[in-house]
Amino acid sequence: MSCPKAGSTMEIQSYKHNGQLHRVWENSLVLKGTELIVIGANDKTMVKESDGRTWITREPAITYFHSKYWFNIIGMLRNDGIHYYCNISSPFVYDDEALKYIDYDLDIKVYPDMTYDLLDEDEYEEHKQQMNYPAVLDRILHNNIEYLLHWVRQRKGPFSPDFIDQWYERYLTYR
């Protein structure tokens, strides 16, 4: 698998299990790109929804993608601290077109005090039936939720103190 180069821009494409394009983020800046991890940044980035709607992100964000784990993490820098939005998803793949992953609906919102909410369980159950998620996939996703929550509780990876701030400082050197 190829990997994006630091300092380049990439598109991020989110798909659904049935292969349908779900959402696209344009022009995310690559801060680190390896076959294992991609860390990106964006601010006021155009996002296109599958139904044609578009919107602009409101605040600077650091994105964290891993090629082995079934989640990705967005750390959003807000006035009251760092808010995290974690997508339960397939591991990423990267080709020369974009960084790509499958979004499995379940999300975890983590607040600056490290409390969290699991979101969209009803949407997950609906899509699990509609798209016939196999039982093994359901187990993988739920195991990765537990793994991700372990990271949150242990302040590991992007949840560690200063992780988002340090990568945001790196992002500012490119602006």
UniProtKB/TrEMBL annotation:
EC number: 3.6.1.15, 3.6.1.6
Residues forming the catalytic site: 23 (proton donor)
Cofactor: Mg(2+)
Annotated signal peptide: none
Residue positions binding Mg(2+) 2: 105, 107, 120, 123
Catalytic activity line of the entry: a ribonucleoside 5'-diphosphate + H2O = a ribonucleoside 5'-phosphate + phosphate + H(+); a ribonucleoside 5'-triphosphate + H2O = a ribonucleoside 5'-diphosphate + phosphate + H(+)
NCBIfam families attached to this UniProt entry: PRK13662.1
Family recorded in the similarity comment: Belongs to the Ntdp family.
The protein's name in its UniProt record: Nucleoside triphosphate/diphosphate phosphatase
Organism: Virgibacillus salinus
